[in-house]
Amino acid sequence: MEQLLFFVCLAVTSLAGYWLGRRALGFGHVSLAAVLGSALECLGASVIFLVANVLLGTLTALAVRTLTSHFVGLYVFSDAILLPLSLVQGLAFWSWRERARVH
């Protein structure tokens, strides 16, 4: 029952977003495949930034441990804020790429 409720909520917000885009904001008709493809590109860029952030953070922490007497824990790079910040990085990069493609 909870899973059905979950998908119903997703469907309702998706339809509301579609209605808002078409009626209130005047977005033109675009194929669903193109929209989903762009969304997956954006998500992919975000995942790449997440992996890069974790990898760079881990390597940096290990370098600090090795080269100095300071201990830096790896748990710092598993903070929950890293995911939304990586999503913002990916969205910004994807948006920049899309705008550069137009010009």
Give an account of the 3D structure.
By secondary structure, the protein is mainly alpha-helical. The protein folds into 2 domains: 1-30; 31-102. 78% of the residues lie in helices and 0% in strands. It is built from 3 helices and no strands. It has helices spanning 2-24, 32-67, 82-102. Helix 2 packs across helix 3 (82-102). The longest helix is centred in the middle third of the chain and has 36 residues, at 32-67. The radius of gyration is 20 Å and the shape is elongated. The mean pLDDT is 91.
Structure classification: mainly alpha
For the secondary structure, the number of strands is: 0
- How many structural domains can be distinguished in the coordinates? 2
Number of helices: 3
User: What can be said about the biggest beta sheet?
Assistant: none
In the predicted model, the low-confidence regions spanning at least 5 consecutive residues are none
Q: Strand-and-helix sequence, N→C?
A: HHH
Mean pLDDT, all residues: 91
Ends: how far apart? 49 Å
Provide the helix percentage: over 70%
User: What percent strand?
Assistant: under 5%
Shape: elongated
Q: What radius of gyration results from the CA coordinates?
A: 20 Å
Q: Mind sketching the topology for me?
A:
Blueprint (H helix, E strand, L loop, with lengths): L1 H23 L7 H36 L14 H21 L1
Structure, briefly:
The protein has helices at 2-24, 32-67, 82-102.
Task: Provide the descriptors you would attach to this structure in a database record.
mainly alpha, 2 domains, elongated
